[in-house]
Amino acid sequence: MQSKFLLFIGPLFxxxxxxxxxxxxxxxxxLKVRQLLSEMTLExxxxxxTQIDFSVVATELNSDNPVDQSKLEDAVLKxxxxxxxxAPQTPxxxxxxxxxxxxxxxxxxxxxxxxRLKIPVIxxxxxxxxxxxxxxxxxxxQAINMAATFNTDLSxxxxxITARELRVAGLQWNFSPVMDLGRQPLWPRLWETYGExxxxxxxxxxxxxKGHQGDDFSAPTKALTCLKHxxxxxxxxxxxxxxxxxxxxxxxxxxxxxxxxxxxxxxxxTIMVNSAEVDGIPGHANYQYLTTILRxxxxxxxxxxxxxxxxxxxxxxxxxxANEKEAVKIAVMAGVDMSMVxxxxxxxxxxxxxxxxxxxxxxxxxxxxxxxxxxxxxxxLFDPPSPLLPEGENFSTAQATDINRQAARESIVLAKNDxxxxxxxxxxxxxxxxxxxxxxxxxNGGWTLTWQGDNxxxxxxxxxxxxxxxxxxxxxxxxxxxxSVFDKQSALDVTKNxxxxxxxxxxxxxxxxxxNIGSLNLETxxxxxxxxxxxxxxxxxxxMTGGRPRIITxxxxxASAVILGFLPGMxxxxxxxxxxxxxxxxxxxxxxxxxxxxxxxxxxxxxxxESYESNVYHPLYAFGHGLSYTSFETSNLKLASxxxxxxxxxxxxxxxxxxxxxxGKETVLVYLNDVAASVTRPSRQLKAFKKVELxxxxxxxxxxxxxxxxxxxxxxxxxxxxxxxKFKIMVGHETATFTLNKP
Length: 743
Ligand code: BGC
Prior knowledge:
six-stranded mixed sheet; alpha/beta; single chain; Immunoglobulin-like; binds beta-D-glucopyranose; disordered N terminus; 26 strands; Rossmann fold; 3 domains; TIM Barrel
């Protein structure tokens, strides 16, 4: 064991980065890390692997600098901690002004400067839709919405703006993006994902990383990302957060690994571990995932960090370990490099004992610490502190807010629009009703200003709820009904003088286990309200906001129009109003299959058997669905060749035309199907897409190149293979076939 780890460390330093000048600086970093490691005591090394919550070093009081100096000295000088996470204020972390963050980080820097080796602390934060914990930051649509934009440029810009705002506050490490796939709609973190599709999640996530990190994440406006939650976390069989997934190795390799693989290639240097378990093995104990696959196969060179208290939980929850010490040994030996302990120094003391007794080889410690130090060097944390980015031109700028508004608009899905009920006339008299109509928190969801995102009183006063945004835009009378109405007569009374009812339903904010539910059914009170409003005979525009697809089949059938808003962020109210009144032509498309019934969770890339005989893929709204106020037609799907050889790219083109009367954006989706293969293949899989804006009557020919790997799948022997034979390409209503020749 010992020699294996020693062998491992050598090449580690030479493999980071690929550009020639980067290799040079990586070699320098390699030397610095070796030198530093040789000077470190075991205690200092294990401290680097320890991450504590801010509360461990916090004062009880609210102040401009909520750091308790003696607790901080205990953490940094006595326990040598390598990392701190989270926002101040217990029991719930809460967004702080830029100035407070600067004070906190300066205090930490000042103490590390007094430490023996002056190793900087890396501060981690969940900035999952913008800088969550910095007051007045630009808070974007959540990931499920960003996926609905099918606009990688917007994802790139979200990454850019988030990193910039973090750096203004002095923060540099973001626990984002979530690369888990959203294939279980009950899971209360579905909305933190980029949806159900492998390709879409991969391209949206990698664009975000590139915007966030640039080519060099030590640059003054860039910051590190952390991929979550490796791997298989998002597919709990019972739909509850932190509960078991049973994912076979083929499924793992086919669906859940590829987004992580792409994100690693995009350069993310840190990974957070799956907080639950797959196939009976907790994420934090899974040597095969954390070492064999992550390191040996995927070539990840950065460091892994545990999720919240999850090493302890191998003992307290999973009963995998007989005590906490054994839990530490299992996790570290499986490949966890840093422990988010987070409330005490137990990990530090126990790991020290384990190394001193020879139960954990010191080479494994050197390996983990080398990875952490390498990332710290690459992030420029060892460099003399440079002046912080000035707030004025970098934080909450008008330009960033405009981009946010655009992201929100492109993320909203118009699912139904019978008889052109939308857009509304500005002079229509509108009744706005429903529990989600006049709150900002329902537009933002979890990880907004606080962990659960539910503290409405903390939300900025200048942002508009749906009701207020409608009120701002409309010239007709807009009334808002706060109290619910549950019977037809009362509904008739309150709607007597209105032309249209805007019914705003959905979910309250939540994340993690707090958001667990037993059914996707809408709350009974919402069903009653909807039915009463629908019974009036007035046109009802149903607007859903929230993190999951709640069942609306009967209500959607009767509604004149349906908008699926999910969690469009701080500009969401105005963005929905833009669409309601036709100030913006909707173009969002569903990144998930919206179920018709609670147990109807067949996904778009289902197997043939799932749409055979009486089985059917029949969601309420399919993956990729989304209407516009104009219409588009795709035609003339052409393949450059209907016969290709192994290694060839597949060139195809298709013509898209705006056949309606308004300018609009359309996303053209290219699907592939392997007609016959040795392992059953999905009926179709998204392989490429392009989003274009067209004026009325305008046509454009779009060209796509599919790579040879796009034809591959995980074969019988669990290795990726490409099998010769027939393939189908599907775009819109057209299909084209080609044959991959035998080698
Ligand atoms: C969540 C992670 C998060 C971490 C730190 C955990 O409970 O699962 O997604 O990054 O807390 O806040």
